[in-house]
Task: structure prediction
Amino acid sequence: MKTDKISPDTVSALSTTMLIPLWAKAVEFDQKQPLLRDAEAVRMIGMIDYDFSRFAKSKASQVGCCGRAALMDDMANRFIAEYPDAVIVDLGAGLDARFERLGKPPITAWYDLDLPEVIELRRMLLSETSNHYLAASLFDESWMEMVAEYNKPVLLIIEGVLMYFQPEQVKDWFALLARKLPNAEIIFDTLPKIAIGRQKKHDALKHIEKPPEFKWGINHIEDLNQLGLTILENVELSSICGQRYPLILRLLYLTKCGRKKLDIQIVRAKICSNE
Result:
């Protein structure tokens, strides 16, 4: 059947994971007490030729994606209040409209970075305004060098991305950031180590053909010190999502052991120079 909608078929399986949080935010818009309100998600989902009904039973992921984004938005807002002349880079931005949700803050510069095929799709769905799109890998050094040239406070935001890379890749990436952007701050999320390799049991990813593998996670928040990070704040995802999770998860997260072994951490940290 012919359709005027845009197909996401040109992006890789890894990048297709960006459709899950987009769907989650669109669904959240109609909640009586939403964790966040994202009108752009509602608009974009109506433009995409994709069967989003496959995620209909992914209750934990729906609320989890929205809670994660809301906590990161809050951390970013606090950073902007402290550093109104900052440069912010949203890494692996996918189809997330964080810049719009935060009211298009009049900072020095805001960049949304993702792989070229994702940026191409993003431009079809969400135009740049006072922000800028970068078609690049998060491992490229060129964008780091460009950001460093501003000589301004820097915030990096990376959501739902690092868990798909090997631990050594994550470690090397943070070491590279320490060389190129020392003293920058970063907001990111971590999976518990118990989730590694269990992507096919994930309530949303299991509905994607050949879901990308979970490869990196942590046992304790202190594990992040090994990456050369100084933790400024961290929040357990269940602290905001607890009452909306399915019953079994609500019960698990009521226990200290459940939170320690299973909860996702939302982290704001400073990247320390390795010199």
User: Anything to note?
Assistant: The longest helix spans residues 59-82. The first strand starts at residue 87 and ends at 91. The beta strands are 87-91, 109-114, 132-135, 154-158, 185-190, 229-236, 265-271.
